[in-house]
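Hi support team,

I've been running sequence recovery on a batch of backbones for a student project. Most finish fine, but this one hangs at about 90% for roughly twenty minutes before it completes. I'm not sure whether the input is malformed or the queue is just slow. I've pasted the structure tokens below so you can try to reproduce it. Let me know if you need the job ID as well.

Thanks,
M.K.
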């Protein structure tokens, strides 16, 4: 479980609840089922109109990844590619077919198969580039869906408030209930703004961050495989791929190689 995602959501909810209590209110005053249905349903409906159904259905699975701890795999991939380069130097490119099924990274697994089969380097690069872009585009689409929902949610909140005010102003037989009814009407605006800025947009940002990290790993794999196919020395490959690592990771890598 990614504590940053879960903790951030809980902290935001706690801040709203604490502010309400400090002002002498209660959580009951912030609850309106009808407003919630209008805002959530309207936001999802408008978002579905904006995208293909397949894009929308892919979002729940993508959101689950935002709640999982994403391990930085760049250092491990560099080490794995250097090991592959060493094996290729000793036993030849054909030997890289051994153990391919045990490779977790999909782009590296496919690339090793292509290299071992003797596919032309230009074709290897083209195929892996396409596969990497397709994976990135799928992640970016899920983020775009959430960002679009974040754009519609405040507007749906305003629509809900207007609907509530129309109902209140059209039924003013009991003026003593007017203030309470207006307060309930404005809960729709609260739900719309809160859901956009505490849920939809933050999750979209997290998915884009994860997509960026995955894209960096894909670029590393592609460059490493092309270099291996070209017969690069393992030590030179390690120096080349270390550019993808953070300064701290580079320091650990140098320490391990001594």
């Amino acid at each position: 479980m990614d504590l940053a995602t879960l903790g951030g959501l809980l902290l935001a909810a706690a801040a709203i609840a604490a502010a309400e209590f400090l002002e002498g209110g209660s959580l009951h005053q912030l609850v309106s089922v009808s407003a919630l249905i209008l805002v959530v349903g309207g936001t999802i409906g408008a978002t579905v109109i904006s995208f293909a159904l397949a894009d929308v259905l892919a979002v729940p699975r993508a959101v689950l990844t935002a709640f999982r701890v994403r391990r930085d795999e760049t250092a491990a991939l560099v080490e794995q590619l250097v090991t592959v380069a060493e094996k290729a130097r000793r036993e030849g490119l054909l030997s890289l077919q051994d153990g391919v099924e045990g490779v977790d990274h999909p782009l590296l697994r496919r690339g090793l198969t292509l290299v071992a089969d003797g596919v032309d380097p230009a074709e290897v690069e083209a195929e892996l580039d396409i596969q990497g872009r397709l994976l990135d585009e799928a992640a970016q689409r899920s983020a775009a869906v959430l960002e679009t929902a974040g754009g519609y949610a405040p507007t749906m909140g305003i629509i809900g408030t207007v609907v509530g005010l129309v109902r209140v102003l059209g039924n003013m037989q009991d003026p003593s209930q007017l203030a309470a009814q207006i307060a309930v009407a404005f809960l729709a605006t609260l739900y719309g703004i809160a859901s956009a800025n505490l849920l939809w947009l933050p999750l979209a940002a997290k998915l884009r961050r994860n997509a960026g990290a995955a894209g960096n790993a894909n670029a590393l794999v592609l460059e490493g495989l092309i270099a291996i196919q070209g017969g690069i020395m393992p030590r030179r490959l390690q120096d080349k791929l270390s550019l993808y690592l953070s300064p701290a990771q580079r320091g650990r890598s140098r320490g391990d190689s001594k």
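--
Follow-up from support: It reproduced on our side and the slowdown came from queue contention, not your input. The chain has a mean pLDDT of 88. No action needed from you.
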